[in-house]
Amino acid sequence: MINKKVNTVEEALEGIENGMTLMLGGFGLCGIPENSIAELVKKEIVDLSCISNNAGVDNFGLGLLLQKKQIKKMISSYVGENAEFERQMLSGELEVELTPQGTLAEKCRAAQAGIPAFFTPAGYGTEVAQGKEVREFNGKMHLMELAYKADFAIVKAWKGDEAGNLIFKGTARNFNGCMAGAATITIAEVEELLPAGALDPNQIHIPGIMVQRIFKGEKFEKRIEQRTTRKRN
């Protein structure tokens, strides 16, 4: 069994260079690879194209890369929580490709499965359809969407083993599941890293064949994007 373990986040991110395309798991601040994002900020890599459901918030997640002007293009489905993102988009500093959320997930999953393209009705008749092939299926118009091409996918899991097998926890699974294996190299950041074979095979969400590097993250903040409470009686 191949050992995919690397000892540090620095080692895990080796090979990421200016101008590359990265997939980053997470939904809001849930299930984001915190240590990897912090290391990307530290490495001062620029001109990145980032595929992620959203761009974090102003002072955390991908918002940290936006603050340092390290992201050239953002491919997302939801971007409403980040004022700096809005400023850069409206000023023309940041190229933005908005994609229906289900389409974004399927473009990742298609890349993961080696499927070059698929047809979907989502976005037909809107700006999303511009420049795309259109076909009719069962009386309904569909757009052809191409699978994503990314250099690295960086995902966050709850548990993993040294062979790269991953288990996610609750809703933190989100886009991590479909991004693992969807790029040339997949890096997994985990909370708990176990010896190969220590995970129950029936509980594994992503098999190790889809992961090239795995490391144990540290000091996860797990911030809450929006805390909503009710008054006690």
From TrEMBL:
Q: Which NCBIfam families match?
A: pcaI_scoA_fam
Tell me the GO molecular function terms: CoA-transferase activity
Record's protein name = 3-oxoacid CoA-transferase subunit A
Q: Pfam families of this UniProt entry? A: CoA_trans
InterPro entries linked to this entry: 3-oxoacid_CoA-transf_A (IPR012792), CoA_trans_fam_I (IPR004165), CoA_transf_BS (IPR004163), NagB/RpiA_transferase-like (IPR037171)
Family in the record: Belongs to the 3-oxoacid CoA-transferase subunit A family.
Q: Which organism is it from?
A: Flavobacterium degerlachei
Q: Which UniProt keywords apply?
A: Transferase
> In which domain of life is the source organism classified?
Bacteria
